Amino acid sequence: MRVDIITIFPDYLSPLELSLVGRARDRGIIDVHLHDLRQWASDVHRTVDDAPYGGGPGMVMRPEPWWAALTEVSESGAADGRRPRIIVPTPVGRPFTQGYAGGLAAEPWLVFCCGRYEGIDARVIEAWADDEISLGDYVLAGGEVATLVMVEAVTRLLPGVVGNAESVADDSFANGLLEPPVYTRPPVWHDREVPAVLRSGDHGAIIRWRREVALRRTAQRRPDLLAGTDPAGTDPAGRVAQ
Ligand code: ADE
Q1: Ligand 1: which of 9, 97, 134 to mutate, most ligand atoms within 8 Å of CB?
Q2: Which residues line ligand 1 (CB under 6 A)?
Q3: Which of 108, 125, 133, 135 is most buried by a 10 A CB count?
Q4: Which atom of ligand 1 is nearest the CA belonging to 137?
Q5: Annotated active-site positions, please?
Q6: Residues 6-40: pLDDT tens digits?
Q7: Distance from the CA of 203 to the center of ligand 1, in angstroms?
C-alpha cells in the first residue's frame, strides 16, 4: 500500500518510523511519502493561510497550494493508471471506525490531507476529497494526529503485519464487542487471582466466559455497540462455543 501525507508539519508524522508501522515500512508492506504543503506555496513567504470570507476567528488554508499538491501527488501515480483515495481528517467528518479502517486496508493508495487552523478552503474538499473523517467529538490542533491514528489502525490490518491474524480478528470492535480482560502469569499477583476458568483448560468454558464478560463490559461501557451485536453463541472472535 502506498500512503501520501500532505502537511505543514512533516516532522509531526515521525512516529510512523517506529514500532509496527516502522517495521511494515521496512518490510515494504507500506510505502509512506511525507510532503510539506509549503513547497506548493507560490509567494516568497510560503503562505498557506488567509482570512475567512464572511469574517470570524482564525485563518483558512488557501486553495492554491492544496490544489497544486493534490494535482502533483495524484499525477505521480498516474503512470500505473492508479488513483488514490483522498481522506481529509476533520472534526466535521464521519466517525472513524474499525470497519472503515478495514475498507481503507483494501485500497492500494491513500492520500491524507492534514488541515490546520480553521480548516481547508471548502472548494478543495468538494473537488478532491473522497472522505472527510473525524476521530471523535473533540477538536485537535490539526489533522496530523488523526492521520497517525488512521495509518496505524489501517497498517495493523494489512496482511503480514500482525503475526497472528487471529489477534486482529479478536480485536475490540472487530465483531461489535469490546474485548474481555486478558491475564498472564503469575496466577496470583498482589492477592488478585486469574479467573479459574482461564486456567481450567476447558476451551468451551473459556469461550463462553469470554463471550459473557465481553457482553457485560460492552453493555456497561458502550451500550450503543450492542444494537448491532450478533446474538449467536460465539466468542468475541466469532468462534462458536462447543
Ligand atoms: N482535526 C481536528 N480535530 C479533528 C478530529 N476530531 N478528527 C479528525 N481530524 C481533526
Answers
A1: 134
A2: 89-91, 134-136, 138-140, 142-143, 146
A3: 133
A4: 6
A5: 91, 118, 156, 171
A6: 999 999 999 999 999 999 999 999 999 999 999 99
A7: 42
* Separation of CA 213 and ligand 1 centre (Å): 32
Q: Which amino acid type is present at position 233?
A: G
User: Amino acid identity of 179?
Assistant: E
Residues 6+ positions from 223 with CB-CB distance below 8 Å: none
Question: Which residue has the least CA distance to atom 6 on ligand 1?
Answer: 91
In DSSP notation, 5-60 reads: EEES-GGGGGGGGSHHHHHHHHTTS-EEEEEEGGGG--STT---EEPPTT--SS-E
Distances in whole angstroms, Cα of residue 68 to Cα of each of 33, 61, 64, 86, 188: 16, 13, 6, 14, 61
Using CA atoms, how far apart are residues 31 and 155, in angstroms rounded to an integer? 11
Q: What is the pLDDT of residue 237?
A: 46
User: Residues of 185-222 as b/e, b for ≥16 C-beta within 10 angstroms?
Assistant: eeeeeeeeebeeebeeeeeeebbbbbbebbbebbeeee
Rg (CA), the chain: 22
User: 150 is written with which cell numbers?
Assistant: 488512521
Q: Which residues of the chain have pLDDT under 70?
A: 229-242
Main-chain dihedrals φ then ψ at residue 6, nearest 5 degrees: -110, 125
The 8 Å CB, 24+ separation contacts for 213-221 are 213/180, 213/181, 214/177, 214/178, 214/179, 214/180, 215/177, 217/177, 217/178, 217/180, 218/176, 218/177, 218/178, 221/178
Q: Which pLDDT belongs to residue 155?
A: 98
